[in-house]
Amino acid sequence: MPQSHVRRGYALVVTAAVFFGINAGVTRIPMEAGLPTATYTTIRVTFAFLTFLVIAVAFDRSALRRPRGRDLLLVVALGVVGVAFVQWTYNIAIMRLPIGVALLLEYLAPVLVVLWVRFVRREPVHPRVWPAIALALLGLALVGQVWDGLSLDGIGVLMALAAAVCFAAYFLLGEELTSSAAEPLTALRTVVWSFGIGTIVMNVLGGWEGTSALASDASMLGRLSEFTVPAWLAMASVVLLGTVLPFFLYLASLRDLSSSKASVTAMLEPVVAVIVGWLWFSETLDVVQVIGVLAVLAGIVLAQTARHVPADELPPPL
């Protein structure tokens, strides 16, 4: 693949991770205004789907064509697991676990992706990926300071691990649909149909209770607490900039990057979230956390420099 395409893939993933990380701060505004977690997730998925639908009608109506056969099954799986369940399980996890522990467990996803590629698909991976993942996970542990209050809730741990499985599935299924299929789906067609399925699932699981909270003005919190915005405006930002844009960019990147490289690069997201917490919410960022941020970035760089492997360096086929 041309290096320009590879660089484009990295740029898409990094941009998506940055928007997801910033969204971690924006999310607090409607939630602090009283919007229930389940309703928040339902609104987020539903309105993201409606946005994708409008974009498809306006710019590419071929994206409305229903996938068929195996592609339809993959899209349904992506919508249920990679769209609805990844958010539902993570929201439960962060209600029961320290945020750092929940993030660390969810970001076991790149490990799961690499294991799947290596032992299920039976494809070789560069040996450098393993220490890169280990370094990034160590960095996440330092950033989240997971040793702080490790009396863990069993259901919370189970949900965080389920979120990791769902997040890994998002990359693997997305890669299969957008680049590996006999007739790859466009990123827009994939998100239209997967978010459509996710919308059905979340309207069954989540519901619409407590939406009256969106009619009030909400504090922007942290260093911006003297300012207020309509809660619905913050929720609109969550939908457009925190969901539609990054989810689309992740899928688009899978035309240029493997799922293993994209998922490792996505580990930048919690680092951005920590920096947002420091700049916006005056959360302490101590020396250990700074070291953790640098370790995550080093792990990402180490993984992404593993672009070509001579045949004699590859692990033997299974």
UniProtKB/TrEMBL annotation:
Q: Which SUPFAM superfamilies match?
A: Multidrug resistance efflux transporter EmrE
Any transmembrane segments, and where?
9-26, 38-59, 71-90, 96-117, 129-147, 153-173, 185-208, 228-252, 264-281, 287-306
Keyword Membrane (UniProt): yes
Its membrane topology? Multi-pass membrane protein
InterPro entries attached to this UniProt entry? AA-Vitamin_Transporters (IPR050638), EamA_dom (IPR000620), EmrE-like (IPR037185)
Superkingdom of source: Bacteria
Pfam families given in the database record: EamA
Q: Where in or outside the cell is it found?
A: Membrane
* Signal sequence extent: none
Alphabetically sorted, this entry's keywords are:
Membrane, Transmembrane, Transmembrane helix
Does Isomerase appear among the keywords? no
| Broad class of where this protein is predominantly found | membrane
GO cellular component assignments: membrane
Q: EamA domain: which residues?
A: 8-143, 155-302
Family statement drawn from the similarity comment of this UniProt entry: Belongs to the EamA transporter family.
The record's PANTHER family line, in alphabetical order, gives: EAMA DOMAIN-CONTAINING PROTEIN, INNER MEMBRANE TRANSPORTER
**Protein name per Swiss-Prot or TrEMBL:** Threonine/homoserine efflux transporter RhtA
